[in-house]
Amino acid sequence: MASTNRRRLHFVGSLPQFDDAKSAFRWQQDEFAGRIRRLSGGETGPRLQWFVPLVKALKGLPHVRTVQDGEWTGYDDTDRLKVVRGSRLTPGDIPMRLGEYAREELAVLDTLGAPASADLPLQVGIPGYLDMALFVFGPIGVFRHARAFRDATAGQIAEVHRAAGDAVVFQLEVPAALIAVVSAPRPLRPLLARLMARLVTSQVAKAPHGSRFGVHLCLGDLGHRALKIPSSAAPQVLLTNALVRRWPRGRQLEFVHLPLSGGDQPPVTSAAYYDPLRRLRVPADVSVVAGIAHEEQSPGDQVAIRALVEGALGRCVDIATACGLGRRTSEQAVRAVDSMRVLLDDQN
Question: In this predicted model, what pLDDT tens digit does every residue of 1-16 receive, in sequence order?
Fold first, then answer.
């Protein structure tokens, strides 16, 4: 496993400045050789909208009814669906294409003469099953349909692992879990963190032995706005520690990405916000990815924030934005990457 003693860049997923995976891969290989741990295909085209194409496909099922149409420009502008009374949603109903996308991207890397490998694997984004059930079917969907989404996702993970083995790292993307912890009253947050960790890791436990994972905690980014912004990093720490404690054996946790800002709001410059990071308990061989890079903040403030984060953790961090770049314009995405470079380039 690559050393975690030196910073690297982490691209959460979507890269709107590129039209296809080939361009995104070439850019990473040319610009960031030796400075990234994984390759992202950029989730180009319709995939910039996360799992929205899946939602649109679900609307065509005969036993699914549309309650609300949406364009997904913000949290009040989403599709909301309902399963017709007397019917049920099965894993086979859910038109997930993660395996198809991964095979396409693996093939692109082959044509570039740089196939995915254990040392530089393909990163495959995996939307959280709780998030899909919640966003598509509302709160009741978590109780009625979450298992169908979990099992459908498990099938996709198994398919990709059969095809690529340790040349792929699965990035679990779980905003619902973090938002639940942030939204809870402070005395209940530890309990919520344990519950969310149990639910999230149930997905990991279904993956084949030897699967490689990272976790992208998220505060939401629809319309480039965070759904919630905590007053400190304490919720991120509570959930991460709970996940680490429950992590299933035989599946490697490679990184945890912590959003330390949200949407169009740059990270705060107050040291108090980052002080809870002193309580983070992540093994030394697991990378901590700090989601602090932001295009609307000065380089000086960005570097100062990195120092606060690394000072609290007592270790180097990898550098990322708080979420993928898909809700930014291409110009904003380029500037966000420039901010990432600043946070990496002054290391010795």
Answer: 556 778 999 999 899 9
| 8 Å CB contact between 207 and 249 | no
234-282 pLDDT, tens digit per residue, is 999 999 999 999 999 999 999 999 999 988 899 999 999 999 999 999 9
